[in-house]
Each structure stands twice: as C-alpha cells, then as structure tokens.
Amino acid sequence: MKNRMDKFAELERIFGTHKPIIGMIHLDPLPGSPRYDGMSMRELTELALQEAHTLAEGGIHGAIVENFGDYMFLKRVPPETIAAMTYVAAHVAEAVPELVLGLCVLQSDAIAGMAIANTIGGKFIRVPYYTETYVVDAGLMESIAAETLRYRRYLGADVKIFADVHIKHGYPLSQRPIGLSARDAEHRGMADVILVTGLETGGETDPTDVKAVKEAVEYTPVFAASGVDEFNLPHYKEYADGIVLGTRLKYDNETEAPTDPKKLERFMHVVHEIWPE
Predict the structure, then answer these.
(1) Of 134, 151, 154, 189, which sits most exposed with the smallest number of CB within 10 A?
(2) Selection from 144, 152, 88, 90 nearest residue 115 by Cα
(3) Residues 6+ apart with CB under 8 A from 210
C-alpha cells in the first residue's frame, strides 16, 4: 500500500491533479534525420513553442516533446538529435513553465531522454520499449529498463519513467497477456506509470486492455496513451488514471499537423465532466 500511495501522490505532486492529461509536441524533422529540410533551430523551436502555448492555454497539464518527424527512427540517437531536442525542450520549459514537460526520444532511447529531461528540468520520460523484447520496423527492440534505472540513479535525476506495454507498432516476442507484461514493468522494471496504446499512432486504445492492466498491477498508475478523443474518453473513466494524446487533437487527425484549439476545448470540457477536480 505504501508503494501505491507514493506513486499516486507523486503523480499529483508533479501535475497538480489526480488525473493528468498530457499532450504531445511532435517535433518537425531534426538535423541529421532523413526528412530534415534545412529549417533552422530557431524555426523548429518556434513551431514547438506554438504547440506548447496552444496546449497550455487549453488546460493541458503536461506535454511530451518527441522527435516524431525523424522517422525512420534509430534505436539509439546520435549527438545531433540529443543536442537539437535539448535546445528545443529547454526553450519550451522556459517559455511555458505551466506545462509539465516530458521527453520521448524515438525509437526508444531512454538514456538520451533521461539526460535531456534531467538537463532541462523535465519531470518524466516516455519509454516505448521498456521491458520485454519487441519486433518492430527497425528490427528487434530489447528491454532498456535495467540500463535506464541505473542511469537515473547515476544522475540522481528526479525524472519519472512512463513505460509502455504492448506498445503500438510493436509485437512482443513473449506473446503473453498484457496484464503479465504490465506486472513485470511494475515489479521488475519499477515503472512509475504504465501506458497502454492502440495498434498504431492515433489508433484507439482498447478499453479492455486498460482494464486488464489496471487489474493486474498493484500500485502503479495506468494511462490510456493513444487514440483518445472527446467521444471515447468516457470509456476509460473507470480504469485510466490519466491520458496521453496527440493525433486526435490535431487538425484532420494528422499527427504532424498543429493542434486544433477547438478540438482541445471540447476534449477538456469532457474531461471536466467525467473527472471533476
């Protein structure tokens, strides 16, 4: 019970609410990535700042800065990606302090994410392939939990680990129920939050998966983390402890489009109806 109280209390301390809503700041292609078109760091940062301001003004509690535009992704990112993401995230943290910032360094570079978050005052990282081994478009993604936990301890970083289980675009080699995977992420991986997604970016999270994970873990918050919108949010009311969403808030549901303030307003209206403060 102590562990449960600690994790939920920490979540509320960081976000100022017991049901955090976290948006996405999907960065344009960064220097060195296949689609990078020469945009200056100032221009890249300005686009990220526009997204951050839209999310903050719409009442979102936090945001994840992610190098979504860098596909096809590397398993471990090079120095130029780390430098660019640090530059952008630091500017966002300074300009929009009301947003609790996290980092997700794709494909699943938790070490880079932890280093950036610790440097810019970020409070959490998202790690898509945290425990278990997955088959993905880039090949095999192996667990990075042991390395991440040790690196966090080495840095003395106050950065939480938000770990996906059975993540979109990935297929676990173990082929076991999602609840068992979640229990290992909780007990052995010591994840601070467990994320449940659909099958692809923007794909709706199956509410039965959220339920299965929530019933399997003992003391760890569980978030629905893809494909949530104003229409299906009530489906997660009973079991989700928070939400991560990006694509469904964008114009035309295009992941790389800007956030639509009207969609965000409608979504947050539903949030306040089903999860009053």
Answers:
(1) 154
(2) 152
(3) 196, 222, 224, 236, 239, 240
Residue 114 sits at φ, ψ, to 5 deg, of -65, -40
16-40: burial string, b at 16+ Cβ within 10 Å, e else: eeebbbbbbbbbbbbbebeebeeee
Helix/strand/coil percent split, the chain, to 5 = 40, 15, 40
Question: Per residue in 184-204, pLDDT tens?
Answer: 999 999 999 999 998 888 889
Q: 156: burial class by Cβ within 10 Å (0-12, 13-18, 19+)?
A: exposed
- State how far the Cα of 225 lies from the Cα of 102, in Å rounded to an integer: 14
Cβ within 8 Å of residue 126, ≥6 positions away:
64, 66, 102, 103, 104, 113, 162, 164, 195, 244
- The backbone region for 28, taken as left when phi is positive above 0, alpha when psi lies in -120 to 50, beta otherwise, is beta
Copy the structure tokens of residue 7: 């994790």
3 state SS of 43: helix
The 10s digit of each residue's pLDDT in 90-146 is 999 999 999 999 999 999 999 999 999 999 999 999 999 999 999 998 889 999 999
Tell me the sheet residues that pair with 222.
Answer: 194
Give Cα separations from 154 to 14, 118, 149, 150, 201 (angstroms). Answer: 22, 12, 9, 6, 33
**Bridge-partner residues for 135, per DSSP?**
140, 171
CA distance 116 to 126: 12
